[in-house]
Write a structure and sequence with these properties.
The chain is mostly helical. The chain is built from 6 helices and no strands.
């Protein structure tokens, strides 16, 4: 299955900037049970990267690498923002 046959560029933008909302609307959270919900709550960018690698590595490895870069930078920037907010 190819990513571009199912999704568009707008999906990429939405999943990069609003992963929780996008995963909730698309329905990926409920299909993975407890693990999906834990990823949704604690590390949505990481969950997206894991799902992308699982489904699309064989057809779009570049897209998967970009998903991991977004996951690592997105998660670290969220942690930094949370730390600043609690410091005030």
């Amino acid at each position: 299955m190819d990513f571009w046959q199912i999704h568009t560029v707008w999906f990429l933008v939405a999943i990069a900037f609003f992963p929780r909302i996008t995963m909730l609307v698309v329905g990926t959270v409920s299909s993975f049970g407890l693990l999906g919900w834990l990823g949704f709550i604690f590390a949505p960018h990481l969950t997206v990267a894991i799902l992308a690698t699982t489904y699309y590595w064989h057809t779009n490895p570049v897209l998967c690498v970009i998903a991991w870069l977004v996951a690592l930078t997105g998660t670290s920037s969220e942690a930094g923002a949370a730390k600043k907010a609690t410091h005030r």
